[in-house]
Amino acid sequence: YGFIPPCTMGSLGILCFLIFLEKSWGQDPTYVISAPKVFHAGTSENVVIQVYGYSKAFDATISIKSYPDKNFSYDSGSVHLSPENKFQNSAILTVQLVQFCEGQNSVSYVYLEIASSYFSKLQKIPIICDNAFLSIQTDKSVYTPNQSVKVRVYSLNDEMKPSKRDTILTFIDPQGSEVDIIEENDDTEIFSFPDFKIPPNPKCGVWTIKAKYKEDFSTTGTTHFEIKEYVSVFAVILFGHLPNANHSQMHRRHPAGMAGSSGWNRDGEEVVVV
Fold first, then answer.
1. Which residue of 40, 55, 170, 195 shows the fewest CB atoms closer than 10 Å?
2. What positions belong to coiled-coil segments (predicted)?
3. Fold of 132-227
4. Interior angle at CA 267, CA 266 and CA 273, nearest 5
């Protein structure tokens, strides 16, 4: 038996390993197994097997098993290899999120096992639960008390297609306390949540919104917004360029809704100070 170490095939990210079997008549019997170099839980993974030097059809079983004990099979498939398919076939295997990812927060491993009456192979493969993309967007970055925050979420899987998973949003105040939790089902890649109503007498400062999938504990998204008592945006307009301009010749114009402590009108009228 001979072994060629794994090799990465360019941007395809394919892990290849070759085993040369015992010599027989004609071409030496060999097989090639192609699989992703990293598995993603919740994603369908394509495993391809091709053999050379055989003349009779036979079956092979491809399985994903628990590491390191091999006691649990996450998924398996049987492939038929024959002259009709040029002794090449593939199986689609999936490690379900609920089977693997609860409590996982780092890279783990599984075994990829190929077994037939002619050969068998066991290969350790990394697997991660972070298999998607979550992004949160709000309608603006600064709010005042008693306003509502409009939120939408972009949810894509690792193939950049709509993930269609239940998503949970958590709103956290500047002191780190969870104020509200909202759950929504994703029907498209971009979906809106019910408005978050800022509670009475909120803590001013930077708030955080965290998104996660209901059945996936690793893929998350985060954004921030700020709550202020008022938004102090105003314009100062100077009329004229008189060399001896004095206070009476300069007008300061303030839009309505400014802080009452400065004597500005809160009733929707523009105030001009002369």
1. 55
2. none
3. Immunoglobulin-like (2.60.40)
4. 65
